[in-house]
Design a protein that fits this description.
Length: 202
């Protein structure tokens, strides 16, 4: 024979204002303690990094000096580096030159006194027209701000006229496109961490 048990919902009473104040005071204290720990960790990381940089600096300087020596050796013996390629020096270690892939870099435009900028390059292509326009590409991306403006305009019109048809039509249209205008509500705690405020909660 089975026994059927019916559970009753338990209603948790809402905290009193005094309990809420105590909870906030504990929250602030925990927040300050956590921040202090994180700040201490950041300072320790910076200290360790600086200490490591200081210890490694002499070795980095030595590397730079020896690299200069090796480069001068390579420049003095071009026969060892056909087509400016790498050559094994000993033990499988190679030295030489490495050519990077072609890259577009800025320079001073013909007849100009200052080095070109990318915005200036685009303007120059537009002024030149024709074949130069091939060097400009247009990036297509969703205009989210335009969607929000349209939604805001429709909502304002609905509020002013009492007619929600514009908002409804826009919502349906956006839904066909696979998007919607959404907002979310979440609980936040906005702390006022002025010294006098923190002291009052202590």
């Amino acid at each position: 024979m089975s026994t059927r048990t019916t559970s009753k919902p338990v209603t948790i009473p809402a905290p009193t204002e005094a309990q809420a104040r105590a909870a906030l005071a504990t929250y602030i204290e925990s927040h300050l303690q956590a921040e202090a720990i994180h700040n201490q960790a950041k300072q320790e990381i910076e200290r360790i990094k600086k200490e490591a940089d200081d210890k490694a600096r002499a070795f980095e300087d030595t590397k730079a000096l020896q690299e200069t020596t090796l480069m001068r050796f390579a420049e003095a013996h071009p026969e060892l580096f056909q087509k400016r390629q790498k050559s094994e020096l000993y033990g499988g270690h190679k030295i030489g030159w490495q050519i990077s892939p072609p890259a577009v870099v800025l320079m001073r435009a013909t007849g100009e006194k200052k080095k070109q900028t990318w915005d200036g390059f685009v303007d120059a292509c537009r002024r030149a027209g024709g074949w130069a326009m091939e060097f400009i590409r247009t990036k297509e991306e969703p205009d989210k701000e335009s969607i929000l403006v349209s939604h805001r305009t429709a909502v304002e019109h609905s509020q002013q006229t009492g007619d929600a048809s514009n908002t409804t039509e826009l919502t349906a249209y956006l839904a066909r496109l696979g998007v919607q205008v959404a907002q979310e509500e979440r609980f936040v705690i906005d702390l006022n961490l002025q010294p006098e405020t923190v002291q009052q909660t202590a």
